[in-house]
Amino acid sequence: MNSLNQIELQNIRHICGHATNFCDKITYYKTLTQDTNVTELLDSLCQELNSLKTELSQML
After folding, report:
1. In terms of C-beta distances under 8 Å and separation of at least 24 residues, what long-range contacts does 4-10 make, across chains too?
2. How confident is the model at residue 26 (pLDDT cuts 50, 70, 90)?
3. In this structure, what are the phi and psi dihedrals at residue 33, rounded to the nearest 5 degrees?
């Protein structure tokens, strides 16, 4: 990934930050519901966001 320019690197960092913020919001939204299906979906979404963040961080 040596060919990434500064703007691309900055965009990757922003996406990683957004993924963290989304997971924080998901954690809050999970407190608002008692539906296990919803909480399982939100957990799955947060896991995918963390996976994306990990993959992008490895590119840096």
Report:
1. 4/59, 9/60
2. very high
3. -130, 150
In sequence order, the 6+-apart residues with CB closer than 8 A to the CB of 29 are 42
Distance of CA 4 to the CA centre of its chain: 21
Reported pTM:
0.77
Report, as an integer, the average pLDDT of 51-57.
90
Match 């996976």 to its residue by tokens. 51
Nearest to 44 by CA among 17, 18, 12, 22: 22
Buried b (16+ CB within 10 A) or exposed e, 39-57: beebeeebeebeeebeeee
